[in-house]
Amino acid sequence: xxxxxxxxxxxxxxxxxxxxxxxxxxxxxxxxxxxxxxxxxxxxxxxxxxxxxxxxxxxxxxxxxxxxxxxxxxxxxxxxxxxxxxxxxxxxxxxxxxxxxxxxxxxxxxxxxxxxxxxxxxxxxxxxxxxxxxxxxxxxxxxxxxxxxxxxxxxxxxxxxxxxxxxx
Length: 168
Known about the structure:
mainly alpha
């Protein structure tokens, strides 16, 4: 034990502060390693992103559907107008749910596959995944629409990455 009347060691400030100790490295448990392996699977990431995207689309559709003010017939009663509006909100939210679910699934799958193929975690993966997603989502409109969708979604994805500064 150190003597309470002893002078502080050379170079110390002399205060009664305890020196910060280095924490030992904790190795992950087997369960944590298995969970990490599951979440590193591209299929699991894609499905989870699709489900979360669908939930986001559902909420956005309900919100935007509630704000939508359709022109209704003046002869409709209050109940009929309520039912009409509820049906419109439901169809809009279901449409947004499907769109966002597909968008999340495609983007996440593309980014994961590209990242594993390139063995790098950078913004280039995001740009390529955005291009794949935008092009596939707008492919029904023809090649010109697919190219515009590719460029637009890739640009948007990279800007979001830069905004959140995920890749430094």
